[in-house]
Every structure is written in C-alpha cells, then in structure tokens.
Amino acid sequence: MQDNVMQAQIQPFFKLVQANMELFSQFSSSPAVTKEVSTSASNLFQQATDSATQLMQSGAFANLMQGLLKNYTEFLTELSQGSMALLSQGQSALVRQTEQVADSVVEASEVHGRRLRQAA
To answer: Quick one: 45 and 76 in the same domain?
Structure first.
C-alpha cells in the first residue's frame, strides 16, 4: 500500500519529465533547428580553418616546428651513437673471444705435441 501511495505522488513528476523530453525531442529534430545547427556548424568549420591557417603562418608555429625538428634530430643522433657504441663493444668482445679460442687451440696443440714427443 505504501508503494502505491509513493507511486501516486511521484507519477506527476514522471509525466512532466516524459512530456518535456518529448518536447525537446520534437524541437531538436525540427527543420528550423536542423537548418540552424547545420549553418552554425558550417560557420564554425570555416572559422576553425581560418584560425588554423593563421596559426600555421605565425612565428610561434615556425618555432614549434623548428624545436620539434631539433628534438628529433638530437634523439636520432643519440640513438645512432648508442648503437655504434654497442656495435663497437660487440666487435671488441668478438675479437677477445676469438683470441681466447685461438690461444686455447694453440695451447691444446702444444700439449698434444708434447705428449706425442714423450710417447716416442
């Protein structure tokens, strides 16, 4: 019973909200509003285009582009220097390992030669 009483009291508010939503829906889809929105959107697009064109021709935009180019150039320079250092270290390590292998081969052949001489 209490639910029915609350529902009866709230019902006018729901009807008001529903009726207002229907009015706003009709208003927003009316030809006059649609035409005005289309015109405004077109004007807004034209203003944005003009504004962007003016910004691209400004000194601030040129400074931005120069700064970005400088940053990317420094980044690529540092990246390539790091890569070259890594390659150089890799090459040094390869040379050291090759020398170690060669030394061990020479040592093994000397030991083998001594054994053969001792056996004879």
So the answer is: no
> Do residues 44 and 93 both lie within one domain?
no
CA atoms within 13 Å, Cβ hemisphere of 112: 6
pTM of the model: 0.43
Containing 52, the helix (H) or strand (E) segment is helix 31-56
Q: What is the dihedral of CA 106, 110, 116, 120, to 10 degrees?
A: 150
Range of the domain at 18: 1-57
Give the list of residues 6+ apart from residue 55 with CB closer than 8 angstroms, or none.
61
Over the stretch 15-39, which tens digit does the pLDDT of each residue have?
Answer: 999 999 999 999 888 898 889 888 9
Residues 63 and 115: their CA atoms lie apart, in Å, by 78
DSSP 57: T
